[in-house]
Amino acid sequence: MLPYGKQTIDAADIQAVVDALSSPMLTTGPLVDQFENDFATATDSNHAIAVSSGTAALHGAMHAVGICEGDEVIVAAITFVATSNAVLYCGGKPVFADVEPDTLLIDVFDVERKITPRTKAIIAVDYAGQPCDYRELRALADRYGLHLIADACHSLGGSYHGRKVGSLADVSCFSFHPVKQITTCEGGMLTTNDTRWAERIGRFRNHGINASAEVRQQQNTHRYDMQSLGFNYRLSDLHCALGISQLKRLQPFVRRRQAIAEHYRQRLSDVEFVDLLVDRGDRSSGRHLVVTQWDECRTGVSRDAFYHHLRQRQIGVNVHYRPVYQNSFYVERFGQNETCPNADKAYQQILSLPVFPTMTDAEVDFVCDAVIEFSQQHQQPQRRNAA
Ligand SMILES: *Cc1c(COP(=O)(O)O)cnc(C)c1O
């Protein structure tokens, strides 16, 4: 099965991890600092804080900006459940904003409609790798005094108006799961320019303790103070060794992803019933996903039939994502009163095609052939004659 995404590991990555394994410190050593410094540089941000997953990064962001019981946080309706779960971890209430039908990025007008006196923050999701409209989101956040958080788990390596992802929101969150642009197996990162938030997150990932074991060792003291309730969300030196090595190849990884997306666009843009998401001209995508929308209305054929057609050809297509509020946990907790019509409609249509740096042009063509074949099977006979 051709997967929809996968990691690219080379000999230098393996050597970096092996070297780290024989170093004196396996966790919270010098490689954590180095990975953070390299990442801050790569994203044009003042601070980068490494954590154990993208989910931990989102939780840390909610903690940093002070989300607590009774606060509302506006979240894009189409995202991985981790985005809105992070709000719940802090006792807040996720309020879902609809997405634009052509990009599936958060709809800024709907965000404004969902703002109440309890709203404290917005989490924008750079769906499929394309940054959201951060100029509009910034203006809205400033007007209402809200914190702007980027779930940038799809968009590392992307940019908006020439500014890098990671520097576009108050806090940005990244994941290094193997399907993402770079991997540490499991791992995550937050970036921010706010020094106090960076310090808060640094404590939060280590039980709320004010000094790491490394610092205590250096200062020759056993004393520490737990100042707030935190977690063990640390990322080990082994993971960071892999991250440092992977980050060096971020640009070629993203360029190859973009080239594959362009190849798909060239072959599929005129295919009937199949639409690719739209790329806005003022930004560049990190291209985590290549998402198509299958026209169920005009064909009377479901997206699931499209899914099964491709799966039968050993093409590992996937659906990203079911609107979060449709999950039974959310229905049980909040009822079925969410209305995000674009998200509901998109969920009937979306299918993600494979894209990862080592995917070959022949593999892309193989996927395109299968997509075109399915489209042709569902054209009306008279159309086929006319063609
Ligand atoms: C991958 C992902 C996450 C979670 O990251 P993990 O590292 O798996 O915890 C959160 N949000 C989005 C949009 C993601 O794609």
Structure overview:
- Helix content is 42%, strand content 14%.
- 49% of the residues are buried.
- The strands form three sheets. The chain has a seven-stranded mixed beta sheet with strand order 1-9-8-5-4-2-3, with helices on both faces. The chain has a three-stranded antiparallel beta sheet with strand order 7-6-11, with no helix packed on it.
- The protein has helices spanning 11-21, 30-42, 54-64, 81-89, 108-114, 134-144, 195-204, 213-219, 237-247, 250-268, 296-299, 303-312, 328-334, 341-349, 361-377, 381-386, and strands at residues 47-51, 72-76, 93-97, 119-125, 147-151, 159-160, 163-164, 171-175, 188-192, 274-276, 283-284, 290-294, 350-353.
- The chain is globular and about 80 Å long.
- The chain is built from 16 helices and 13 strands.
- The mean pLDDT is 96.
- By secondary structure, the chain is α/β, with parallel strands linked by helices.
- It binds pyridoxal-5'-phosphate.
- The site of pyridoxal-5'-phosphate (PLP) has 14 residues, from helix 3 and helix 4.
